[in-house]
Amino acid sequence: MDKQPAYIIADIGTGNVRVAIATPGGEVLGVSREDIRYEKDPLYPDALQFDPGALWEQILRLAKQSLAAAPQAEIRAITATSQREGIVLLDADGKSLTGLPNIDHRGREWEHIITDKSRVYQLTGRYPTSLFSALKLVGIRERKPEIWSQTASFLSISDWVEYQFSGVAKYEHSQASETLLFDVERKEWSDGLCSIFGLSPSLLPELRASASVLGEVKKEVAKELNIAPSAIVVAGGGDTQLAIKSTRPAVDDMVIVSGTTTPIVKLTGGYTLDAEERTWTSRDIVPGRFVFEANAGVTGLNYQRLKEIFYPNEGYDVIEKELAENRHTFCMASLGSLLADEEVSLTRGGFIFPAPVSHLLTRGSFVWATMVDIACSIVKNYKILAEVAGHHPDYIWGCGGGLQSLTLRQLIANLTGKKVQMRRGFQQSSAVGGALICNEALGIDGRMDDTIETVNPQDEAHYAGIYAEWEKTRDYFRNMN
Fold it and tell me: Taking every annotated instance into account, which residue ranges of this chain make up the domain Carbohydrate kinase FGGY N-terminal (predicted)?
């Protein structure tokens, strides 16, 4: 069998761990995934943690499975991406102490220590909350002195995975944007931000750009995976940024990244902020470019859970067929997605339909309502970004597994009046983005397939009415919270 150059790309999401083997052209030769395991930390009201040692074993196991599925692969490079706010704490010898995922909110009790939140927004591009890494560190310092006394440094999860592969500790710029300790416009760690949280700048590793070469894979890891010890480890970045890269967008383009959550972003050439502090601004993995973002929150996760209830033994193709045949749009939903202009997240939601129960109401009605809720939440956040930063192209890029649903793509096109464009391989956007980064590091022209699938808007007036009905439903549930 002829050998084929390929890369290992590890992707640590909020819900699962995936390891893919991809070619320089972005073709996925093998991919394995498992759920990521969290445990509650009873010392806080809302805290989750994970065992870094167990996660590393999981990554190695999945890498072996993916390599077994791609015997022709000759690994030239390795990179990683991950959920953006999660971190791993290290001691002075580089030993992993504990892992804190993005959904860990142990720092919520100490949000009050930030006396000037607008100043933090100006420097970091995000309104400071317990979602971000600095307050996770504060939570450890205040209630787990036995761990804090050993903590010498910390890394984002993707930087930590690359550290495990290479032995080189660093922090990539898009991931640093999520810490509240990084001056996003100046592209450097900030002593002033560290002082706000009472954290020493000595905790902060060296910054490195995405696509920079960290060195060769550690010999013991190469031996365990049976890959060449000359394979290099390449700095990756945040999962949203790698997905964006897979669409190959230009400055001023908008991109929808549809997964467990759904970031909606505009690529800008300068540091952009919202006067009402509703948005996030991060460094992109492309030099000189920024990611201006609103996030619709748990959209794909809602869809997955509704499928488990209504279609536990059937595939997504059955859902799509029933949605395509659905002619009754009277069932509406509000299921806790996020809107950038709402100060408080909705913690109660549900479905609304005419009473008494109509014989026309089916399981497809509930999934349709869920899909409309996802699409309208995306569109509302899109409108906020466009209001602040403008958006003139007649298209929006899309990527991520959620956009495998043709119904969702068509709804977004109809509600925005913009074409929705997806490049070939959009379902595996992190793997394609990782392949592009490895190509840059190795100086390879990957010659990716540039086929673009386009969904055109239809019947916009009718869908404007559906959007208005969804807004009424949203208001109803907002008043209940």
Answer: 7-243
Residues 152, 92 contacting (CB under 8 angstroms): yes
The answer to whether the peptide bond before residue 201 is cis (omega within 30 degrees of 0) is no
Angstrom CA distances, 243 to 11, 28, 387, 398, 435, stand at 11, 15, 24, 9, 11
Instruction: Give the pLDDT score at 229.
Output: 97
What is the model's pLDDT at position 230? 97
Tokens, residue 269: 């050439």
Among positive and negative, which fits the CA dihedral 426, 431, 432, 434?
positive
3-state SS string over the chain? CCCEEEEEEEEECCCEEEEEEECCCCCEEEEEEEECCCEECCCCCCCEEECHHHHHHHHHHHHHHHHHCCCCEEEEEEEEEECCCCEEEECCCCCEEEEECCCCCCCHHHHHHCCCHHHHHHHHCCCCCCCCHHHHHHHHHHHCHHHHCCCCEEEEHHHHHHHHHHCCCCEEHHHHCCCCCEECCCCEECHHHHHHHCCCHHHCCCEECCCCEEEECCHHHHHHHCCCCCCEEECCEEHHHHHHHHCCCCCCCEEEECCCCCEEEEEECCCCCCCCCCCEEEECCCCCCEEEEEECCCCHHHHHHHHHHHCCCCCHHHHHHHHHHCCCCCCEEECCCCCCCCCCCCCCCEEECCCCCCCCCCHHHHHHHHHHHHHHHHHHHHHHHHHHHCCCCCEEEEECHHHHCHHHHHHHHHHHCCEEEEECCHHHHHHHHHHHHHHHHHCCCCCCCCCEEEECCCCHHHHHHHHHHHHHHHHHHHHHC
Q: Which pLDDT score, from 0 to 100, does residue 259 have?
A: 87
6-18 confidence digits (pLDDT tens): 999 999 998 899 9
**Spatial contact of 91 and 97, defined as CB atoms under 8 Å apart:** yes
Cα–Cα distance measured from residue 349 to residue 297, given in angstroms and rounded to the nearest whole number? 14
Let me know: does 74 contact 11? Beta carbons within 8 Å: no
Percentage of the chain surpassing pLDDT 90? Answer: 88
Please choose, from the candidates 166, 104, 164, the residue with its C-alpha nearest in 3D space to the C-alpha of residue 136. Answer: 104
User: Which parts of the chain have pLDDT scores under 70?
Assistant: none
**Phi, psi (5° rounding) for residue 222?**
-60, -40
Residue corresponding to tokens 């903590």: 151
